Amino acid sequence: MAKRNPFTWQQNFIRLPSGIRAKLANIDEDDLVVAAVKRIARSDIEAGRYAHLGIQATEGNIEFPGRVVPPPRIGRYSRYNVQGRVIRLKDLPKVTKTQDLEAPNFGDWSKGSHTVSWEREVYQRDDWPPKFLTIEISLVGEEVGEGNLLFKFQVEQVLNKRDPIFEQYLLYNLNLLQENTGVSDVFASDATLADYLGTIQVAWEILPPGERDENIARILSGTNASPQQRTAFTDRYDFLISLGPEKIIRGNSGFQRYFGAQFADDLVAFENVEYGNAIYVMFEDWVELSRRSRLELLSGPQDQFERVIHRSGWQRRLRRIIEQRRNGPR
Asked: How far is CA 81 from the centre of its chain?
């Protein structure tokens, strides 16, 4: 029996996540891999949180193997990967199975033996042999001054969308990666490093709403915003502050910068600083949704957010959405 997963992240998926389905619809290539990039704090490595993957700090140096078979104690899919699995198909009719037993003649093995056979009804079974899949590990970046390292994790198997049981294999591999790293995603097998780095999970910084000039400078730092863009951003910032947010959120993925106004635990208005032409008001799953690209977001379920395009009347529409969501029934 596998031990309980010792980590705080979600361990397994029962079915393919909607974000993965949305991304599959936008990948033209047939050959895919399950992989993801994760920002890991050096302190987490030093604390041994990723020791099960062989990632460790030795005398200040970060060491890790190129690939590793996850230990079966980590979770059910790590166990299936090494030990296999037998599934009783209880939703299918039972089948007749003949069983044999060798027995002694007259109860005395010295007199020889004979085979005793009988039939019994048993459930049909689906046998999963062990796959011994490895997770490939590579260090693809470091955030200087932040103490964070960017690791890419990839399940070695290449999957093909035309395979009749593609989704079964995909779910298996997603779960194997998820329970060991806390992240999982899908990419074309020929994806570039830039494709991977563009999906790095956003690190959030909470800013106090009252420090206007400092917040604006901090959010815009490192961007290529023109004076006109800075003026437009400042106007939008001031409008969002007028709606009375509880917190200001600054997100930095290393490649994209986000600004958000949080009005409740399940209500955040987001805008991309560098190319924003719309505000996205996200609800319960805003942390997960904010990791997606605009294309992935718009390809997924539309009931998890509202999109407010910056055109005539956008302030009035945004104010109405915030007030209804904040003050109305949940």
From this structure: 20
What number of other Cβ atoms are within 10 A of residue 38's Cβ? 19
- For residue 90, CA distances in Å to 83, 85, 93, 119, 168 come to 22, 15, 7, 19, 18
Whole-angstrom distance between the N-terminal and C-terminal Cα of the chain? 41
Whose tokens are 């050959």? That residue is 31
- Residue 284, classed as helix, strand or coil, is coil
Token pair for 37: 């990039």
SS3 155: strand
CA 290 to chain centre: 12
pTM, two decimals, is 0.56
Spatial distance between the Cα atoms of 254 and 193, rounded to a whole number of angstroms: 13
Averaged over successive runs of 10 residues, the pLDDT of the chain (330 residues) comes to 57 84 89 91 88 91 93 93 79 76 85 82 73 94 74 95 94 94 91 77 68 82 73 88 88 59 87 72 77 65 84 92 77
